Amino acid sequence: MDVWEAYRAEWPYLAQGTLWLQHAGITPPCSRVLNAARAAMDGFANDPAGYYRSLWHRATDGARGAVADFLETTPDRVALVKNTSQGIILVAEGYPWRRGDNVVTLAGEYPANRLPWRAAAQLGATVRVVEPDYQGCFGVDRIAAAVDDQTAIVAVSWVQYLNGFQIDLPALAEVCRRHDAFLVVDGVQGVGALPVPLEACDALAVGGHKWLCGTEGAGFLYLAPRLLERLRPLHVSWHSVAVDLSVPGAEIDTEEGLPALKPGAERYEEGTPNAFGNVMLAEAVGMLGEIGVERIARRHRELQEHLLDLIEPLDYHAASSLGEGERSGILAIYHNSLEPEQIVDRLKRERIIAIRRGDAVRLSPHFYNNLDDMERVAAALR
C-alpha cells in the first residue's frame, strides 16, 4: 500500500463519501488520535483512583515533550494552552508596555491576532496596521517600513488565513532584531503544513485543531528565552508555581505570599489541564513528526498543482501566491463569472466541503488526500 494511502485509511469519515477540504478550519480526528483519547478515557473510567493523576502528568508532560520534539526545541520553552487566542493574549497582556511603544500588525488578520493587540492599546501601546499589496500579500519590506525603534512587538500570522500567503519569518526576524523588537507569530495556519523556522519566532501560538490534526481546546505557546524573561505572568495560579501543590497539604504553604514561579514557559499553565485534549495533541504531533513536515509540504504542493492543472482550463484561477516561499497548505481560487458562494454550492452538492474567504474559495486539503480527490473537485466545478 502507498504510504499516503496507509495514512488515508486512518480517517473514518471518508467512508461516508464526504471530502473535507477545510483543514485550515479544523481537521476531523484520525483513528490513532481517537484511539489515544478513548484509551485515556477508558483508563480513567475504569480506574479513577489509580489512573487520573498519572494520566494528568503523562498527558501534560507528554504533550509538552511531543510538541518540543516536533519543533526541535526543549520542553521548558513550551506552554500548553487552549488555543491560538490564549497564547497571543498571554503575550499581549503580559508585555511591559511603556509610553510610546507601538505594535505592528497586518490588515486582514484573523481576530485572534487582531483583538488582543487592540486591547493592548488600552495598556499604552499604539497599534500600527500594515496594508497588503494589490494581490493581498505582505512582503517583508512592506512590513519593515512600519517598524522603528519604538516598536516593541511585530505580530503577524505566518500564513494568512484568507489566501494562504506565507510571510518570510526569518527575514522579518532580522528586521525586528535590528530594532530590538519581538516577533510574535500566529502559527495556526502554518504549523503542521510547513517546516517551522522556529529560530525566527520570539513567540509562536498554535491551536491544535487545524493542520496539527489534534483537537479543539489543546494547543501550545512557544516562548523564546529573551521574551519569556520580559513577560509578566498575569494569570498566576496553583499550577504556575514551582511547588507541587497537587500533593495533599502542600496548598497550606501558599496561604502567605507567592511561591516562586516555574522557571520556564510552563508557568503559563495556570490550572487543571485539558488532559484528554493534550493526549490527542501529543498523538497528532507524533504522527506528523513520523511523516516529516517537509514531506507534508511537498504533498500539499503536489495536490495543489494537480488541481490547478485540472481547473485552470475551466477558467478557475489561484488567488493564492504560488511563488517559492510564499505558498502554503491553503489554495484560494476564484472564477471570473461565478460568485464564491456559487463555487461553494457546486462543491457542496457533491459532498465536498470548502469555505468562502474574502472574494475567493479556500481549499485546504491535507496530506492524506489524494489525486483522485482533486479530480473529484475538478469534476464538481465543471
Please state the overall shape, judged from the principal axes of the Cα atoms. Answer: globular
Q: Summarize the helix and strand pattern as letters.
A: HEHHEHEHEHEHEEEHHHEEHEEEH
Percentage of residues in helical conformation: 25-40%
Q: What is the CATH top level name of the largest domain?
A: Alpha Beta
DSSP E strands, number: 13
Largest sheet: 7 strands, mixed
What's the overall average pLDDT, rounded?
95
From the 3D coordinates, which CATH architecture of the largest domain would you assign?
3-Layer(aba) Sandwich
- Gyration radius, rounded: 22 Å
Low-confidence stretches at least 5 residues in length (pLDDT < 50)?
none
Can you give keywords for this protein?
Aspartate Aminotransferase, domain 2, 382 residues, 12 helices, seven-stranded mixed β-sheet, four-stranded antiparallel β-sheet, 2 domains
